[in-house]
Specification:
about 550 residues, alpha/beta, Nitrilase/N-carbamoyl-D-aminoacid amidohydrolase, 2 domains, 15 helices
Amino acid sequence: MTVTATSVDESDQLKPRIASGTRAAWARRLVRLLPAAAAALSGLLLYVSFPPRTLWWLAPPAFAAFGWVLRGRGWKAGLGLGYLFGLGFLLPLLVWTGVEVGPGPWLALVAIEALFIALVGVGVAVVSKLPGWPVWAAAVWIAGEAARARVPFHGFPWGKIAFGQADGVFLPLAAVGGTPVLGFAVVLCGFGLYEVVRLAVSWRRTGTVRRAAAAVGLLSVAVPVVGAVAARPLVSDQAEDGSVTVAVIQGNVPRAGLEFNAQRRAVLDYHARETERLAAQVKAGKAARPDFVLWPENSSDIDPFVNPDARTVIDTAAKAIGVPISVGGVVERDGKLYNEQILWDPAKGPVDTYDKRQIQPFGEYLPFRSLIGAINSNWTSMQRQDFSRGTEPGVFSMDGAKVGLVTCYEAAFDWAVRSEVTDGAQMISVPSNNATFDRSEMTYQQLAMSRVRAVEHSRTVAVPVTSGVSAFIMPDGRITQRTGMFVADSLVQKVPLRSSLTPATRLGVLPEIALVLVAAGGLGWAVGAGLRGRRAGDV
């Protein structure tokens, strides 16, 4: 076969066109992947804004990017992109849940929780076509948080936007309407930021911009900031009912991880020893005498009501310090197991109790126990008996001060903290046990929750933890003292007592209900407009 010069020339000319077409195809694929990558990366950016980092200001840009990804999309794209945003956010945020039990539970938890954010993605995409869409979209996000805080298994509010804002300018809004209003302000500011950037780009291209849209964008950014500044007077650390001197005991544990439970007597002895050491310092004039002492959750996993040795250890420590102690115990009563705080008087012994009401699924009880046992018997053997829920708020009267008890996991739930304050608490104690999670970020995330709660209800918050970080938090959210991790230590501080109620405490769940109704109204408007548009097109 003879190849002519003409055919060779045509072949040479064809090669660049093929290469150019291949590059164009790859470019198109990359463009299609860009929203997915942006959704995941903006979720990661949101995670970076959370403690222990103090990069709270990254949350609005994260939502600005999320708004760019979702605006104008269909519901299917919103579902997928929302799920990717949720994975980018929750995978690193909740990695501590797999510290001791492996990646399975961690990945399962994230996969389920990210579904809520996927549905939020659908909602944001749907309302993004409405006038004033940042308002509707921010309300949709809060509606998603409200759902996550209630289902499944009584909810899992970890990762609420409010909990990443303990160091931020928006924090005073917690006193206005609690975590829903604080979170709404941050998300609204983020979506508004995207709208401002979008309109600025449009103006540069066309020289025109719709005034109404510009006003919505600017107000969405400005109103949350101005509102936070206006709310500053609600934040105060002034005593209203006098002051008390409080001691927080961190006894430490023999070892981190799940095995700390095997050393129950050692943990009890450590906390008694640290209390007695403090008593010696008080006697020597090296430390202020406390009015009462707070021990952490699980400081006595040996039931002192049935074990004489444990009772003697606690009694000895209480007599040494000479003031009441709130002891975190595990007790069995009428065949039921309770995570209990026990008010221990140095003269009378145990005089009051509080049973934890919001118990942790897969940590303090196993849903679907028989099914889980069939899958992995090790899980059921680690949690042989489920804890039972308490039914009443816990407010101890300690040397005349009303101390509200919020045990560990409960600090994540709005209702569990608010009920103690409305029941008369003048300060709050959050006894916790984080030894299971080693040196992960979990401790710092939970400490940030307590800072938000302090501002939300204008109460001093004491945080006694078995292995750290224990702390004192003023009603304005400032940490005034803190311990290290996995060290034995004690903190003593004079703290203000307060009895006035913030708007957030008085309003309770009403701001959240209002925002959920706003979200429902926006979704109804958007769906109705879409249906009317289709009918008009069919005519």
